Amino acid sequence: VTSENKTKNLAVIAGDGIGPEVVAEGIKVLQAVAPGAFELTDYDLGAERWKRTGEVLPDSVLDELRQSDGILFGAVGAAPGDKTMPSGILERGLILKIRFAFDHYVNLRPSRLFPGIPTPLADSVIAGKEIDFVVVREGTEGLYVGNGGVVRAGTPAEIATEVSINTAYGVERVVRDAFARASRRRNKITLVHKHNVLVNAGGLWRRIFESVAREYPDVATDYLHVDAATIFLATDPARFDVIVTDNLFGDIITDLAGAVTGGIGLAASGNINPEGRYPSMFEPVHGSAPDIAGKAIADPTATILSVSLLLDHLGLADESARIEKAVLADIAHRSAGTSRSTSEIGDAIASAL
Amino acid sequence: VTSENKTKNLAVIAGDGIGPEVVAEGIKVLQAVAPGAFELTDYDLGAERWKRTGEVLPDSVLDELRQSDGILFGAVGAAPGDKTMPSGILERGLILKIRFAFDHYVNLRPSRLFPGIPTPLADSVIAGKEIDFVVVREGTEGLYVGNGGVVRAGTPAEIATEVSINTAYGVERVVRDAFARASRRRNKITLVHKHNVLVNAGGLWRRIFESVAREYPDVATDYLHVDAATIFLATDPARFDVIVTDNLFGDIITDLAGAVTGGIGLAASGNINPEGRYPSMFEPVHGSAPDIAGKAIADPTATILSVSLLLDHLGLADESARIEKAVLADIAHRSAGTSRSTSEIGDAIASAL
Ligand SMILES: CC(C)[C@H](C(=O)O)[C@@H](O)C(=O)O
Ligand SMILES: CC(C)[C@H](C(=O)O)[C@@H](O)C(=O)O
């Protein structure tokens, strides 16, 4: 019995809005590809729970999550007009709390333009090109640390600060992870930052990037300011293989990357603690989309691809690849233009396995 | 004799790379549309000057610039591979120094998809749509203040910080400017921030935005997180009229906005001190592009449109509009696909005036 054959504990945080709808399909596919391999525990967290109980993420729940082998996360968030829910409560109290508590320093976001998928980019940009890159976004530092404050709030003399904290420790480990990925892919890596303005943080990123690069003579390196990176994502996304960047820049460019490669309905992500000291968390990049919740029209593909990333992380590489293949085949059919419900898409992918 | 008829002093900072090439055409057009209206003073600043003299922007030059009625800026920067020039020297010592010294709190960046201009976006995104919006980027606060530092530089224990400073004073004045613009345009304004993560700065921006909005009941308001904003810039740019945002988000989304509306060869900008206490500075959004410098192939259109913004700011609204019209007419011809030199484009626009 290898460790891969032991039943694994998967914590499931379906969340709000379309979260539960897409997560149901992710689990359907998981159980089709690896029947009996996972024991699931549902956690009721998100806007609904907060409204009912005032709780975001009790310590006892965090302790339970810590015992799991992995976390599948849907999406959380109240409706946009809902003013009862202060901004940031769920983001900082739940998603970011888990990313930081479980040291998810590799926020992995693959982008691939699958054949047949509509994209907002012109044919001239994509024709004959293979668009297949991955953003390695740092997940535990930068402007996401929650450092900063407000003085004289609500007065004409208010001052609000946000502090971006970057350490050699934090930057080096994620840069190393990104170089290792590049060397397993097409040997090309691009650092995205803004070191001409953010000279302190940018200098640190740059020096570490250049020093790790010397250990990977076969990996071609490139640098782009974040503003220029958005231009290339729109005009020549095929130029990228691995992008490594900080937390906020990674947040911004991966939404754009998702948009140009067929929409965030397809964008999967992993919040990874590579050493496995803590459980990693896998989630679609999209949000809870309250406007389409309950209509059974949400695309579960991003969640299903997140399950594929989860399996790969847990050493079930075959199962992971099989899901990806099934998704690819399913997507190829979509070009026909028929529109299916959330569960029809999940069924189709699960039954192809 | 109205004040518009007095000769105005224009400071010209052509800079490096393609800077002098495109600025020459901007001045050609300026002199064609308003002969004798401007007295020009050239300032030799940029990478070349720094290499020769070690000087970036001597105080005496800043004092002279302060006496001008306006500044036309080309682009500065050494070649990308040039390691003799530390990152940030010119950006922080020259461009940002001027923006901050002259209180350019409105960084105005119009984006318009002119008919006939190629765009990386698919027909499905742009067909039948009018894409015409303006980003009002705050220019004197946020992460651009140069606050932060490095501890234990170059060691494995290095810590680098960047502090974003935001004040009610600074946010309110730029938000007011943006609302006033929206009320003169299509009455729609979008705040772009990331208040679910940057709760301090985001809260300040949001409260001020909502309070100024109450004074403009006819202006429809919208809010987007910066990551979502990049998605819409790629998938539905026609939805925007005025966008108001902070310094860094504005930097990022205006490059993307330029890319989707025909490339930053067309993107003009104004660094404006609306009260006229200090001279305002007008510049193309693009950089010095050393790779194409000296080949006479740089597109001077962004600089020529920046001259149009300059004239408008100085009260020469007719002349400003005439340049815009001439550029539009010229662009309409470009669809023919003939490629012209930098000066041929300048000549064509100047002679159409
Ligand atoms: C919801 C929010 C905290 C989150 C982020 O900013 O990281 C989201 O935008 C993402 O990209 O996962
Ligand atoms: C050169 C740099 C300092 C500048 C900025 O970041 O503002 C540029 O990117 C711009 O957009 O004008």
Automatic annotation (TrEMBL), chains A, B:
| Compartments where located | Cytoplasm
Q: Name one GO cellular component term.
A: cytoplasm
| Reactions this protein catalyses | (2R,3S)-3-isopropylmalate + NAD(+) = 4-methyl-2-oxopentanoate + CO2 + NADH
Binding positions for NAD(+) per the UniProt entry: G287, S288, A289, P290, D291, I292, A293, G294, K295, A296, I297, A298, D299
Q: What is its main location?
A: cytoplasm
Provide the binding site for Mg(2+).
D227, D251, D255
Descriptive protein name: 3-isopropylmalate dehydrogenase
Q: Which UniProt keywords apply?
A: Amino-acid biosynthesis, Branched-chain amino acid biosynthesis, Cytoplasm, Leucine biosynthesis, Magnesium, Manganese, Metal-binding, NAD, Oxidoreductase
EC? 1.1.1.85
Picking any one GO biological process from the record gives:
L-leucine biosynthetic process
| Important for catalysis (site feature) positions | Y144, K194
Q: Which PROSITE patterns match?
A: IDH_IMDH
A molecular function (GO) held by this record is: 3-isopropylmalate dehydrogenase activity
The job of this chain, per UniProt, is described as: Catalyzes the oxidation of 3-carboxy-2-hydroxy-4-methylpentanoate (3-isopropylmalate) to 3-carboxy-4-methyl-2-oxopentanoate. The product decarboxylates to 4-methyl-2 oxopentanoate.
Q: In which pathway does it act?
A: Amino-acid biosynthesis; L-leucine biosynthesis; L-leucine from 3-methyl-2-oxobutanoate: step 3/4
Cross-referenced SUPFAM superfamilies = Isocitrate/Isopropylmalate dehydrogenase-like (SSF53659)
Taxonomic superkingdom: Bacteria
Q: How does it assemble?
A: Homodimer.
User: What gene does this protein come from?
Assistant: leuB
Classification via HAMAP family? LeuB_type2 (MF_01035)
**Which residue intervals define the domain Isopropylmalate dehydrogenase-like in the entry?**
9-349
Cofactor(s) required, per the database record: Mg(2+); Mn(2+)
What binding details are noted for the cofactor? Binds 1 Mg(2+) or Mn(2+) ion per subunit.
